[in-house]
Amino acid sequence: MSVNTHQSAAWLVDVSPDAMRRIIDALYRVHSLISAITDRDALLVRMLEESKQVARAEACSLLLYEARTNELFFHVALGEKGDQQTLKEDIRLRMGQGIAGQAALTRQTINVADVRKDERFFGQADKMTQFETRSVLAVPLLDHDNLIGVIEVINKAGGGSFTEVDCHVLEMFSSLAATIIRNARLIEENLKAERLAAIGQAVAGLSHYTKNLVMGLSGSVDLIDQGLEQDNMQFLKKSWPIYKRSTKRVSNFVEDMLAYSKERKPRRESCDISQLMEDVATTFRDLLTAKRVELCIDSTNADRPVHIDTTGIHRCLLNLLTNAADAAPAEKGRIWMSARLLDDGALDLTVADNGPGVDPGDADRIFEPFFSTKGSQGTGLGLAVTKKIVTEHDGTISVERGEQGGALFRIVLPGVMKK
Fold first, then answer.
1. Would you tell me how many other CB atoms lie within 10 Å of the CB of residue 2?
2. pLDDT for residue 3
3. pLDDT digits (tens, 9 = 90+) for 85-105
4. Half-sphere exposure of residue 382, counting CA atoms within 13 Å on the CB side?
5. What string of H, E and C letters represents the secondary structure of the chain?
6. pLDDT digits over 361-374, tens only?
7. What pLDDT sits at residue 266?
8. Which of 35, 161, 332, 388 could form a disulfide with 113 if both were Cys (CB 3.0 to 4.6 A apart)?
9. How many percent of the chain have pLDDT more than 90?
10. How far apart are CA 259 and CA 189, in angstroms?
């Protein structure tokens, strides 16, 4: 028996009040699920459970259509008996094969009261799952005449065949399932395109920065080679610091990538924040090349030990200082780094400069990975890594306009006073 999916709603006249209430309740639950569940597969499973319950069937399955092979495969299989996993892993139907394949081929609902009397029945599934099929209702999933799959309900509870009401209700569910699958596929395609674009952008940015690092190393190696060939110790002494700075930049670059890609919990330890800031300043001065930037440090209001991940916070402050040095003017550039303990036991760290500041349009984006305003001179990882480390401390980081007109980055780390 085939049922036209475009028939009028005249069938509703013959539906009993109890059946109508059951159908409406099921449709209401499914619509509620669509807005509450974001996982496509979980949503489809719940929808099939509702289909199985409304049609009062022993089993239910969803087969998806694969255009590449022109086949149907089991995506979800629900039943009271039988090996449903075998269906999902081992059985595929050609177009026109079995009752589901016929429903897909003709794009028509097929209702079979006794499969033993229907030559279209595909018995191999029963042999593999040890499940006995007696009656089947198969409904194609269509999206603007594009085949997506087929929903089947199997074995009417209590015997007999599925009714015309069951057919129409399952067609409603199939329409919803088709919409869910279509929307999920569109989202997946968009996400894939966005991921590919993001990867391309990241690789392009990182490759430019890596090229600059390699050029710096190559140049310093050439200078060292000349010094060795000429046995000129003065030339070597002049070239060696450039080489050290270049290797340190490579090390920082790799550490930033590792810090961003790896999930970790802070390894908190007692720390003298004044000493940590001096260590950061020493490393920072080694990284500076031609720029003459004055660094001012104030930790007078942080005179007690704090409980933090010293390696992580060292990296945060170093990243902020490096950014500040890039932003500060070449002449009379100044950077201020300060620390103070707040009344609630939090640690407040700031790094400010007298550069142009952060464009308000970029304020929300500068902490995103691979976003950089430095062109090929930056990786776009430093601030993303800094935010990640701060977040791992349950802290916050923000940027605002500093008193000297430049950018002021503020890190607040709660609960750093060891109890």
1. 12
2. 42
3. 555 556 888 999 999 999 999
4. 23
5. CEECCCCCHHHHHHCCHHHHHHHHHHHHHHHHHHHHCCCHHHHHHHHHHHHHHHHCEEEEEEEEEECCCCEEEEEEEEECCCCHHHHHHHCEEECCCHHHHHHHHHCCEEEECCHHHCCCCCCHHHHHHCCCCCCEEEEEEEECCEEEEEEEEEEECCCCCCCHHHHHHHHHHHHHHHHHHHHHHHHHHHHHHHHHHHHHHHHHHHHHHHHHHHHHHHHHHHHHHHHHHCCCHHHHHHHHHHHHHHHHHHHHHHHHHHHHHCCCCCCCEEECHHHHHHHHHHHHHHHCCCCCEEEEEEEEECCCCEEECHHHHHHHHHHHHHHHHHHCCCCCEEEEEEEEECCCCCEEEEEEECCCCCCHHHCCCCCCCCCCCCHHHCCCCHHHHHHHHHHHCCCEEEEEECCCCCEEEEEEECCCCCC
6. 777 777 776 556 55
7. 86
8. 161
9. 21
10. 29
> Both 101 and 136 in a single domain?
yes
CATH (domain of 28): 3.30.450.40
The pLDDT assigned to 339 comes to 95
Give the total number of structural domains in the chain.
Answer: 3
Shortest CA distance to 133 belongs to which of 163, 150, 153, 105?
153
Pair 218, 350 in one domain: no
pLDDT band per the 50, 70, 90 thresholds, residue 375:
very low
Per the rule left: phi > 0, alpha: psi between -120 and 50, beta: everything else, 159 is left
Asked, for residue 378, whether it belongs to a domain, the answer is: yes
State if pTM tops 0.90.
no
End of a domain among 239, 261, 283?
261
Each residue's pLDDT tens digit, 175-223: 777 877 777 777 777 767 666 665 555 555 555 445 555 655 666 677 7
Report the percent of the chain where pLDDT is more than 70: 71
Instruction: For residues 394-412, give the mean pLDDT.
Output: 91
